[in-house]
Design a protein that fits this description.
It comes from Gramella jeungdoensis. Endonuclease that specifically degrades the RNA of RNA-DNA hybrids. It is a single chain. The chain is α/β, with parallel strands linked by helices. The protein contains seven helices and eight strands. A five-stranded mixed sheet has the order 6-5-4-7-8, with helices on one face. It has a three-stranded antiparallel sheet with strand order 2-1-3, with helices on both faces. Helix 4 crosses helix 5 and helix 4 crosses helix 6. The longest helix has 18 residues.
Amino acid sequence: MAKQKFYVVWNGRKKGVFTSWDTCKKQISNFEGAQYKSFVSKEAAENAFKENYRDYVGKDTKTIQLSAEELKKIGKPLLDSIAVDAACAGNPGKMEYRGVDTKTKRQLFIQGPFEQGTNNIGEFLALVHGLGYLKQKNSELPIYSDSKIAISWVKKGQCRTNLQITSENKPLFDFVKRAEKWLKDNTYTTKILKWETKAWGEIPADFGRK
């Protein structure tokens, strides 16, 4: 069953918060200068209607489409931590990854670009690199990733990609083998945490290329 949506019309035949697209469409169809947006919670829609439409133009509304109760349940990120992320131009394509200080976004490490990689491989390598970095620093900081797949691969100690090895991406797979060996040979107490993008926005290590 599709989740209930709520539609805010700031400028239309009738203004307000509507509970169906058909009703909303009647207010904005062929209406010059129509201003509207959908939300997944009534509370978020009602709050948005009280504000100005221009505050929402081009804005990623994922963080505001959660109710206050949902946001409270998720909580806030631990700023005393590091965050990792990867970026890939194509699938497969040129891939790189990095780690940053969550609070300041200061870059701590970066690798790549690697030829013919994938985002999942990059996220996996970023996490392992981050674990190694923290262990070397004798740091007890937790590490954030927004990739459930990468987190599961790290916990299993193996990069479970279906990508085939080629002459172009062999250097990348050499990195993968080194990462898997590190996981096999090392123990760590670092907490690996999931970055809640819907509540907190993009992870601080994001390359900003979306």
